[in-house]
Every structure is written in C-alpha cells, then in structure tokens.
Structure prediction request, 186 residues.
Amino acid sequence: MKQKGFTLWFTGLSGAGKTTLSNAVEKELRRLELNVEHLDGDIVRKYLSRDLGFTKEDRGKNIERVTFVASLLTKYGVATLVSFISPYREKREEAREMIGNFVEVYVKCPLEVCEERDVKGLYEKARKGEIDYFTGITDPYEEPENADVVVDTNELNETQCAEAVLDHLEKAGYIDRALDWKTLME
Prediction:
C-alpha cells in the first residue's frame, strides 16, 4: 500500500504551541512508519529564507517558498508538517489550493498566555518597540475561519491536542493507526 501524501499546516501565534504539537504528531506518524518531513518556521528561516524579514511582503514570500516545498513533498507521498505563524488567511488559502491534500490546524491560544510562555522574550521586546512587525502586537494575526482542526492549547494538554489532530487524519483517510506497515511491506 502506497502512503498518501498530505500537509498538516499548523498556524497560530508565537508561543501557542505549534512546534510542540507538530513534534508530538510527527512522533506518532513516525511510529506508524510513515515518511515524514517537518518544516518548522525557525529552521526554514535559518536555511531557506534567511534573506527575508518580517514585513507582510517578506512573510508572504516565505510562505510561498514553504508552500512550494510542501506541495512537492505531498505530491511524492510524504506526510509534511508545516509549523509557521502564517498570519494571513489569504496565504494559507493559497497554500491549501496549491497543495491539495491540506489540513489546517489552528493552534489557538490567548495572546496573554502566549506572552507568559515566551521564553525568548520576543513579546516583551515587541511591546517595547524593539521588534518591528511582530504578529499579535504590531502586526495582525488573522485567525482561520474554517480550520480543519482547532486545538486550544490553553485548555487542552499536548496529548489531547495531538489526539485531535491524529483523529482528524484518520477520519480523513490519511492514516490508519491500526494498520501494521511492517506486515504490508513484507
């Protein structure tokens, strides 16, 4: 049986738990022996988009690059996890259209809680005017209107959030947690 490629697009404010949640989901997908790639905002910015800043235009270019990579991975049967703030609905919708097998996961969390979780001190710097174009403070975040999965990380723990995502993937036919991949490959 050939693995069906799909992209899980985790969106939300800085500190909402996108990376934590996507790492937990990735771990389960790897346990199921799926081919998985994880495109995380901080890592992609370091290697693929270091030439870009955080203006609306630069954020758009960054999302376009990630969308292209995710579409290729998805096309070739890879479970692709994308964890980016991706603050603009229009760019997320363009990603959905280009990729096709696309699941938008809104990692919801109140701004105040994200600020409390901020180990890098980015929110504080943004509030002091030391960081321009900071989503949620000096730049907008457009919440998804029709996300496929919504998890509130202020209300649910990591395991509950990951289960909600995995349940959706299973109901949508992207994964089968009861399937024994080793048996199929023999």
Summary: Strands lie at 6-11, 36-40, 79-83, 102-108, 149-152. The chain has eight helices and five strands.
